[in-house]
């Protein structure tokens, strides 16, 4: 299975032919840097031609690439990245994950080799987003996985309809707030700020399964918005005039209808998942998958093209 990688393009070498035992083939080479590591990337064949065409030095700098279904190999103690027939490469994709990555680079004071007039000498290790089955997810007990993002392809078996499907969240940290003396106060002990305003946000739990396991997953506001196609505020307004029960206790059919959908979850592994083996997971984002998808890269391509607020950051 291929890996999905994000990083800054460095030392891009234009399309060139090389002789191989299969005849002459075109390749493109560059390095991809996450601010600390800078492995070499080799792109082959038709994808090399597309990559060479899409790479434009006048793009916003630094140029950030996302590689899907890439193959990692270790050669002489260095990691090298090669593309496969299912691989895709995107430059400066208009998504929050790219914007967030660019912001992190700026905060770390990253400079391109062109800025400092030298070739990158950063190490050749690389960070990737793992794609796991649910059974593999439940077996991740190393503390190295705490706060790590992974991808899981699952089917939503059912929505666990509880007392409420939305809450008032603080506009900045998105934690739940309580109304106190006319102001909404954040319950997060690291925040505890208050505001005269709060936003309505989704929060639901589903039972998800694949061929290996079944687990409960709490879906974030972003994940539910992606699956339902509207905000909590919009949904509340739609049902308010039609509902006999107060909106806070009525579970909308639009949410219940996500049952039986094939989806990709971005799972953020928590302390409890690792330290006490909790099998209740948190999905920071979700994307509808298609049963006809024949490769991981095609699913990721759909995720990237549909993203308006994040690709489950590759970090």
From TrEMBL:
Tree of life domain: Eukaryota
InterPro entries: NA-bd_OB-fold
Name of the featured protein: Replication factor A C-terminal domain-containing protein
Biological source species: Heracleum sosnowskyi
């Amino acid at each position: 299975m291929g890996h999905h990688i994000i990083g800054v393009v460095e030392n891009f070498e234009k399309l060139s032919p090389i002789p191989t035992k299969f005849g002459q083939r075109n390749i493109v080479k560059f390095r991809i840097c996450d601010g600390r590591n800078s492995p070499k990337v080799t792109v082959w064949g038709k994808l090399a031609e597309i990559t060479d065409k899409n790479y434009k030095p006048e793009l916003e700098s630094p140029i950030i690439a996302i590689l899907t279904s890439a193959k990692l190999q270790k050669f002489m103690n260095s990691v090298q990245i090669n593309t496969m027939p299912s691989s895709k490469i995107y430059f400066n994709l208009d998504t929050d994950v790219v914007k967030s990555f660019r912001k992190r680079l700026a905060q770390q004071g990253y400079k391109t080799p062109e800025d400092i007039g030298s070739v990158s000498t950063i190490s050749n290790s690389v960070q990737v987003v793992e794609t796991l089955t649910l059974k593999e997810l439940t077996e991740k007990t190393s503390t190295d996985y705490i706060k790590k993002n992974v991808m899981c392809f699952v089917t939503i078996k059912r929505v666990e309809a509880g007392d409420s499907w939305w809450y008032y969240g603080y506009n900045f940290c998105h934690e739940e707030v309580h109304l106190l003396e006319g102001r909404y106060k954040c319950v997060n002990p690291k925040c505890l700020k208050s505001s005269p305003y709060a936003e309505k946000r989704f929060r639901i739990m589903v039972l998800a399964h694949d061929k290996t396991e079944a687990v409960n997953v709490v879906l974030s506001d972003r994940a539910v918005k992606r699956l339902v196609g509207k905000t909590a505020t919009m949904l509340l307004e739609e049902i308010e005039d039609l509902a006999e029960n107060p909106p806070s206790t009525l579970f909308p059919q639009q949410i219940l209808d996500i049952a039986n959908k094939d989806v990709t979850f971005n799972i953020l592994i928590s302390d409890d998942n690792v330290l006490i083996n909790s099998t209740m997971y948190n999905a920071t984002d979700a994307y509808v998958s298609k049963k006809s998808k024949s490769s991981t890269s095609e699913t990721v391509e759909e995720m990237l093209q549909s993203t308006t607020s994040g690709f489950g950051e590759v970090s």
